[in-house]
């Protein structure tokens, strides 16, 4: 079965594409460092999203061409970005006022584990090493909708969607929606509710790859990604 | 995205009876006179108004009070050169007043915008304004716990606005305006000039567009101080 | 005796002059509305003070000529002011961060009553009417040195310097120094300590006009104001 | 009043062993590299450093750590492209680490500057960072009490400075710099250009001069990112 999953599962680009389809025109959006940043590539036609980065920029654009970087203009991942017309710059306290004050519409983040009541673990593997939290705890407690993009299972085949997280938490009951490599799952009333799944996997198979009870939404749609993504 | 509204009355028509409305300005400086007058025209009543003052003369907030639209006002300093409108209603018991020290008022509004439900301040310890508030000691000094202040709407006055809602303010007309823009569910700004996105240097934006919902251009806004010296009233 | 006092006592200008002599070059100073504003006129030679007003201006200058007012540029008393080179503008939360955060050196305020432990009453006569506090409570709790300019006694001859205030307080134990129409008095360890007095009044006379024990400083200097002030 | 100092080393020589030092910047953006290198030259040690990060490569904060001048670091994110310097000392137990969520770090610093000894935030509720902190419920939601953060010194990087200490910042190099300027007893700023008082429009001042003690002009400041790509180290 894990082999079948490896063949069927969505790539990170495809997960990012699916997450991007729920963005809306004029939404203020913060994308986590790394994989979530890919979501920016797949904004739907006619949907102009305003991107926020914790270090104090609202309305930034794509990365500059190599050699064109201005290292005063970076994102939370310390990558060079560009400023778009309508952009604004502010200090860190104002930036986190936007986050904590509930002014951002969507945060899309990565995850180690998500529990059925929406707890998120994404900042520490709990194995010693160097802890580093950054803005994750602020984002999950402040942004109106917190969405996760993630593989459905770990590299070793273990569940990432679980009854309760075993790793140090980033936030409690904070996740609203999960875009995985196999499905779209909402968290409603402390339950995982399946909204979409890729066509060639059964609910039973999906359940077997999920560490907590999957509840079925009113209708479970097929999660289909366009060719070329 | 374009946040520019077509006219003042339409912009404020979303404000319903019983709403809480933060109104920018310190005295007349930074007071969005045209938005306040549009709010009078809209007919909304039973409002809770949050402003540093309680109006002066017979225009702006004083006019809103005079038209009996304000049930309650939260402010630091209801005295003014001509506070008759407020005083009469207050002494008759027809308007409720909550006095908040000015810095605490500013910080409570900022806290509302910044998602800070409560904070501690030394301001007011041992005074009448401490009544009913939790006191705590930090590093041997007494502080009061103060709660955030939010509102349904903010009416603010900007100098420049761009189409995506970024704002600048002119001189000391800034005062409470940027704070209130953050603390209201819906922020409506009048601006002396509306420019295209990209025409305000990002370093010079004072209120980022995320805090602003609707902008209306008011080319040559009136100053409360000038109107009062002319003996103006609204509506007249 | 009250007649003698009426003749001898300093005018408000003279009190303001005396208060101004303790300002130092580069001091950040907030002057209360009304009488305290007069202090600005008497800055000592070579002493450049930076004035702060609660509504968000640091480094303002004198009033503009009549007809030249810009009503966006006012002070806490809603009077028109002018901007000096090096001035800065900021919003109310930043302005009160300066105050509350202990960044201002001196606040000079008026008073109804001051108690020997430094309690101040200057915002409400307690008689009903319309209460109005403004920034006074923030100033007295935040500024490094809180000084008072005041007549030594009330118009009816009653004491303004008292054992404990009868009017609603602005702040507790907040006053450092009092410049009165008759004397300069510091508050030290819960006591009024006389530092200076006008020459033609005895300590006993001054005591009789003061509602709490006056302690004598190491030396009590003569308070002499130059001619023409 | 003129706050312009003559050189970097003299400016930082006031910083004594054991001092707490806020250092502006987010990664390399807004990092006052020249002031940090002067601090290395000054010899000060046993420092507590407050910064968002814990250095990258072998310049700036990483170099200060490599020279064993930092006893303790308060930051949100000690990971970087090349965090070897910090990691080795940390894993050997030779540097103390306090991890603070980034927004809480920013707000604690602001609170330090604003005279707010404590505030409540939802950030960190139910996590390891909540250990030892008071929890309170407001309007049915859980919050943690966080304390202000102050420091003896702040080293910050500005773009323009005027002689009375007013500062502007270039683009996202602003980040923590204006907050730290408020929260330190003594703030030392490097600026790419020092101009006369009156040459910065008062509306465009980001850090008012009251928060700044000493300014040193550093005409073409180095960028940490560029230095690291060149394989630079300090002192070398």
TrEMBL record, chains A, C:
Domain of life: Bacteria
Key words of the record: Transferase
InterPro entries: 3-oxoacid_CoA-transf_B, CoA_trans_fam_I, NagB/RpiA_transferase-like
A GO MF label: CoA-transferase activity
Coiled coil: none
Family membership noted in the UniProt record: Belongs to the 3-oxoacid CoA-transferase subunit B family.
NCBIfam families linked to this entry: pcaJ_scoB_fam (TIGR02428)
Annotated protein name in UniProt: 3-oxoadipate CoA-transferase beta subunit
The organism of origin for this protein: Marinobacterium mangrovicola
Automatic annotation (TrEMBL), chains B, D:
Domain of life of the organism encoding this protein: Bacteria
Entries under Pfam families matching the protein: CoA_trans
Alphabetized InterPro entries for the sequence: 3-oxoacid_CoA-transf_A, CoA_trans_fam_I, CoA_transf_BS, NagB/RpiA_transferase-like
GO MF term list: CoA-transferase activity
Record keywords: Transferase
Key word Transferase present: yes
Protein family: Belongs to the 3-oxoacid CoA-transferase subunit A family.
PANTHER family to which the protein is assigned, alphabetical: ACETATE COA-TRANSFERASE SUBUNIT ALPHA (PTHR13707:SF60), KETOACID-COENZYME A TRANSFERASE (PTHR13707)
Name the record gives this protein: 3-oxoadipate CoA-transferase alpha subunit
């Amino acid at each position: 079965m894990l082999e079948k999953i490896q063949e069927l599962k969505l790539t990170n680009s495809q997960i990012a594409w699916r997450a991007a389809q729920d963005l809306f025109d004029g939404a203020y959006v913060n994308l986590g460092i790394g994989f979530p940043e890919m979501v920016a590539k797949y904004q739907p036609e006619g949907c102009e999203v305003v991107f926020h980065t914790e270090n104090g920029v609202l309305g930034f654009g794509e990365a500059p061409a190599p050699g064109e970087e201005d290292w005063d203009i970076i994102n939370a991942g310390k990558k060079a970005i560009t400023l778009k017309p309508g952009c604004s710059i502010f200090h860190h306290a104002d930036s986190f006022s936007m986050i904590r004050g509930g002014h951002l519409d969507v945060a899309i983040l990565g995850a180690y584990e998500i529990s059925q009541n929406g707890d998120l673990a994404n900042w520490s593997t709990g194995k010693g090493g160097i802890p580093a939290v950054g803005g994750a705890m602020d984002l999950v407690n402040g942004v109106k909708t917190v969405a996760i993009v993630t593989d459905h299972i770990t590299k070793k085949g273990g569940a990432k969607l679980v009854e309760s997280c075993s790793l140090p938490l980033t936030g409690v009951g904070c996740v609203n929606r999960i875009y995985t490599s196999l499905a779209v799952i909402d968290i409603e009333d402390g339950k995982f509710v399946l909204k979409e799944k890729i066509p060639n996997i059964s609910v039973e198979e999906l359940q077997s790859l999920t560490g907590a009870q999957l509840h079925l939404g009113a209708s479970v749609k097929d999660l289909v990604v366009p060719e070329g993504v | 995205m374009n946040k520019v509204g077509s006219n003042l009355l339409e912009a404020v028509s979303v404000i319903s009876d019983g709403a809480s409305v933060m109104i920018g300005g310190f005295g007349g400086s930074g007071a969005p006179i045209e938005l306040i007058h549009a709010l009078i025209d809209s007919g909304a009543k039973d409002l809770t108004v949050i402003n540093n003052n309680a109006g002066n003369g017979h225009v702006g907030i004083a006019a809103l009070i005079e038209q009996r639209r304000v049930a309650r006002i939260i402010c630091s300093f209801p005295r003014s050169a001509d506070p008759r409108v407020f005083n009469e209603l207050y002494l008759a018991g027809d308007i409720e007043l909550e006095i908040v020290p000015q810095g605490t008022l500013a910080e409570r509004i900022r806290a509302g915008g910044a998602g800070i439900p409560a904070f501690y301040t030394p301001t007011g310890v041992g005074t009448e304004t401490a009544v009913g508030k939790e006191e705590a000691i930090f590093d041997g000094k007494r502080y009061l716990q103060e709660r955030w202040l939010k509102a349904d709407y903010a009416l603010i006055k900007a100098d420049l606005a761009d189409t995506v809602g970024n704002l600048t303010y002119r001189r000391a007309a800034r005062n409470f305006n940027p704070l209130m823009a953050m603390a209201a569910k819906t922020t409506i700004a009048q601006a002396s000039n509306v420019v295209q996105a990209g025409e305000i240097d990002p370093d010079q934006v004072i209120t980022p567009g995320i805090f602003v919902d609707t902008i209306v251009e008011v080319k040559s806004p009136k100053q409360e101080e000038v109107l009062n010296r002319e003996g103006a009233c609204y509506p007249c």
